Amino acid sequence: MKVLVAVKRVVDSGIKVRVKPEGIDLQGVKMTINPFCEIAVEEAVRLKEKKLIAEIVAVTIGPKQGAESLRHALALGADKAIHVTTEARIDQAVQPLDVANILAKLVERDNYNLVLMGKQSIDDDFNQTGQMLAGLLDWPQATFASNIQITDGVAQVIREIDGGLQTVKFKLPGVITCDLRLNQPRFASVPNIMKAKSKPLETIPLDKLGKLHNSIQITKTEAPAVRKGGAIVENVDVLLQKLRTEAKLF
Ligand code: AMP
């Protein structure tokens, strides 16, 4: 069984970003693999360790620096990588339907049995690409996975839903998007980082597989309003008075 894992390169979640009207300022900013995509890679590696899958291929769509996220996936245990290159901004111009279309082309070309993806990119927060890919391929999907079991070509997935956990199953091929509690990704060891440098990495210019449609135009980006600091009150009576007179809650 072959698995395609989609990994996106995003601004590191620990960075305080500078917001400009035209978007986040990416100049000199630390970038990293999208955390949900790292969880997807880890899950693929665990399935391979259980001998449930034979090959893991990591794919990214984006500028040349995206190769760093692929090398990270290779160091975690992916076997091969595909870099679909474009100089367009991946947090703005490479949109979910574009990504889904390109991934669908690769699935058709290389016959994968499963696509593992992050549930969401932390830069654009779309949470759409996995769903669109499943639609384009006409494959079943399970989103927000917090547990994945594969037996005899059937995937059983526990999904995190509002107020609980839902278990679904479907016959592969299919698409699964990974949630935070699915696993804790391992650290890449130094020998594995070295080994990753010699694993195969195929580069394909984006226009060989499709094009960017820019179907959504981002008209403005704003930083969230600065929150006012809280205050410590002496006792409950003062709190109630402030809630009544200042916040006018009752
Ligand atoms: P989104 O729909 O943008 O929130 O992204 C959901 C998931 O789609 C991500 O976690 C990735 O697995 C995948 N994805 C989105 N954009 C890209 C990209 N440029 N390259 C590779 N995978 C991507």
From TrEMBL:
One of its GO terms (biological process) is fatty acid beta-oxidation using acyl-CoA dehydrogenase. Residues 21-213 form the Electron transfer flavoprotein alpha/beta-subunit N-terminal domain. It comes from Paramecium tetraurelia. It comes from the Eukaryota. This is Electron transfer flavoprotein subunit beta. One of its GO terms (molecular function) is electron transfer activity. It holds the Pfam family ETF. InterPro entries: ET-Flavoprotein_bsu_CS, ETF_a/b_N, ETF_b, ETF_beta_N, Rossmann-like_a/b/a_fold. GO terms for cellular component: mitochondrial matrix; mitochondrion. Keywords: Electron transport, Mitochondrion, Transport. The electron transfer flavoprotein serves as a specific electron acceptor for several dehydrogenases, including five acyl-CoA dehydrogenases, glutaryl-CoA and sarcosine dehydrogenase. It transfers the electrons to the main mitochondrial respiratory chain via ETF-ubiquinone oxidoreductase (ETF dehydrogenase). It is found in: Mitochondrion matrix. The keyword Transport applies. Belongs to the ETF beta-subunit/FixA family. The keyword Mitochondrion applies. Heterodimer of an alpha and a beta subunit.
